[in-house]
Amino acid sequence: MDQTVDIKELNERIKQESSFVDLLTIEMNKVIVGQKHLIESLLIGLLSDGHILLEGVPGLAKTLAITTLSKAVSADFSRIQFTPDLLPADLLGTMIYSQKNEEFVVKKGPIFTNFVLADEINRAPAKVQSALLESMQERQVTIGDHTYPLPKPFLVMATQNPIEQEGTYPLPEAQVDRFMLKVVLDYPQKTEEQMIIRHNLAQKFPEANSIIKPEDILRARQVVKDVYMDEKIEKYIVDIVFATRFPEQYDLEKFKDMISYGGSPRASISLSMAAKAYAFIKRRGYVIPEDVRAVCHDVLRHRIGLSYEAEANDVTSEEIISEILNTVEVP
After folding, report:
1. How far, in Å, CA of 4 to CA of 82, rounded?
2. At what angle do helices 265-281 and 214-226 cross, to 10 degrees?
3. pLDDT given for residue 165 in this prediction
4. How many helices (H) and strands (E) does the chain have?
5. Mean pLDDT of the chain
6. d(Cα 267, Cα 177) in Å, to the nearest integer?
7. DSSP 8-state secondary structure symbol assigned to residue 1
8. At what angle do helices 265-281 and 7-17 cross, to 10 degrees?
């Protein structure tokens, strides 16, 4: 790590470069009432090139949030409703025989866009969900013999209903791990709900304006990578992730039989990127432990496998993460 980083100069640069974050937030807030955490998470995903999984009961503005974001960023957007009879070709596209040219031509599917809303992703069977894997990880799609790159930026925001609901399939672990953040949404406050009623009964529903372009996002991503992260913070992140794998090494013996598997190296990468993006949103040129703690639950909650014992004792991954954050030494 280069110790000659000029923090003051970096801070000034990040302050300038991150000015659009406030504008984006203002535009989003015009349409979305409350849900501050959701808007922040969307920005983190966008700035760190990570996909987002949203969980919550229907009607919490999950779809509205991503349509508003795509409008503000003036990017292409497509919404795919996942159903039990959906096929991979409905997502990726397929080869169609053209009688005029007497050959097969590729008809690209709705995945070829900047923002994809995979609505109720856990209502489709595993073969459809696995069709998403290549596009989410490699940012490309293979149809027939050819591989096609996806447009940049490319962000999948998937929504899922809580698993207890009828007609849902749990997502495969490999798929869940591809999501950088899993955000759990809750009901709005009373005053917020009043505002929501007003918005929806007004003559004209508020709309976001286009304020930045996709290129601006790509440039901002490069700047986010420049946010300074000290070696102590790196060690802190590694300690947190290792505590999910070997809790007994961190005085957390009680979780040894509760965790069937911990976070993979992808968890450490996501935690670092999300912490940098969070610092950027807060208009700071360096990462502090608070940034790591702020994004930790969203990055890790879907990456900790719970054993039967944990389920029998009603232990959730939320509690495990909170306990790890309270136990692991803060630099």
Report:
1. 50
2. 110
3. 60
4. 14, 11
5. 86
6. 8
7. -
8. 80
pLDDT tens sequence across 122-165:
888 878 887 888 888 889 998 888 889 999 889 998 888 776 56
Q: Where are the alpha helices (DSSP H) in 104-250?
A: 126-138, 173-178, 190-201, 214-226, 231-245
Task: Tell me which of 162, 191, 217 is where a domain ends.
Answer: 217
User: What's the mean pLDDT in 165-187?
Assistant: 80
Q: Are residues 202 and 257 in the same domain?
A: no
The arrangement of strands across the sheet holding 115-119 comes to 77-81, 115-119, 155-160, 51-55, 179-184
Shared domain check, 185 and 159: yes
- Its pTM stands at 0.87
| Residue closest to 3 by CA, chosen among 222, 280, 228, 225 | 228
The domain boundary, picked from 162, 189, 217, lies at: 217
Torsional sign, CA 21, 26, 31, 37: positive
CATH number of the domain that residue 37 is part of: 3.40.50.300
pLDDT band at 192 (very low <50, low <70, confident <90, very high): confident
Residue 37 domain boundaries = 20-217
Distance CA 55, CA 162 (A): 6
Which alpha helices (H) appear in 7-110, and where do they start and end?
A: 7-17, 19-31, 36-47, 62-72, 88-92
Regarding beta strands 146-149 and 140-143, do their DSSP bridges make them parallel or antiparallel, or are they unpaired?
A: antiparallel
